[in-house]
């Protein structure tokens, strides 16, 4: 038996920011842009596969009854997810030009992701940004840059052994992030620093590979 369910979602969620305080109260559209949680593309595939081993299966036709009982009846299941990156806003670490503690966005003069490899060492090109004139808000849009995408495969292998008429034991091996894919965190968005565009951490929601084993008894 094989079961496969796939879903694709295209999303575009726009808002004025999560905290409701505009950067410029006289021009609230300066903050209008993709929501912090918006992923434009998400593909999810869920599967369940009964492996072709067991009584009557040709792959174990020459084995003993014990081997058939041990090797047969395994089920392979899991969920695999791909998602495009989350948005973030370019910012300035030095807010002196605004004479305020408010977070300040820079002026943008080009495509910040052009002519860069977009890896952990340089996700954006800080040269396309500049400090705005004194007491002016920068023209860089809120959440105008997309961060790293995510890919994770969470798979499991399990088998149920029947001990008695009403008693069963299930052995289950679960692997999270089976391919051990490095899902990068968001880049440093302060474009007026030496660390601009540098990624120093992984996405905490998608850690590196880890596994667990479990036994479930029902009676």
Can you describe this structure?
- This protein is mainly β and 219 residues long.
- The chain has one helix and twelve strands; from the N terminus they run ββββαββββββββ.
- 16% of the residues are buried.
- The strands form four sheets. Strands 1-4-5-10-11-12 form a six-stranded antiparallel β-sheet, with no helix packed on it. It has a two-stranded antiparallel sheet with strand order 2-3.
- β10 and β11 form a beta hairpin.
- It starts with a strand and ends with a strand.
- The chain is 3% helix and 33% strand.
- The protein has one helix spanning 65-71, and strands at residues 2-10, 14-15, 33-34, 41-50, 74-83, 87-88, 107-108, 129-130, 145-146, 150-162, 168-176, 210-218.
- It is elongated.
- The model has no long low-confidence stretch (mean pLDDT 88).
């Amino acid at each position: 038996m094989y079961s496969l369910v796939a879903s694709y979602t295209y999303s575009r969620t726009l808002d004025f920011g999560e905290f409701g305080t505009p950067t410029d109260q006289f021009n609230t559209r300066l903050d209008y842009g993709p929501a912090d949680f918006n992923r434009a593309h998400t593909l999810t595939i869920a599967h369940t596969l009964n492996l072709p081993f067991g009584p009557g299966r040709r792959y174990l036709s020459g084995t003993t009854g014990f081997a058939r009982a041990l090797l047969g009846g395994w089920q392979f299941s899991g969920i695999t997810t791909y998602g495009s990156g989350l948005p973030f806003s370019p910012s300035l670490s030095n807010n002196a030009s605004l004479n305020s503690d408010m977070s300040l966005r820079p002026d943008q003069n080009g495509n910040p992701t052009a002519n860069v490899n977009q890896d952990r060492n340089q996700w954006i090109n800080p040269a396309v940004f500049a400090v705005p004139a004194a007491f002016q808000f920068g023209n860089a849009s809120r959440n105008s840059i997309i961060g790293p995408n995510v890919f994770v495969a969470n798979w499991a292998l399990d088998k149920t052994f029947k001990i008695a008429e009403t008693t069963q034991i299930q052995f289950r091996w679960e692997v999270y992030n089976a391919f051990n894919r490095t899902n990068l965190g968001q880049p440093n968005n302060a474009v007026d620093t030496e660390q601009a565009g540098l990624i120093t951490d992984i996405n905490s929601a998608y850690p590196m590979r880890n596994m667990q084993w479990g036994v479930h008894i029902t009676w």
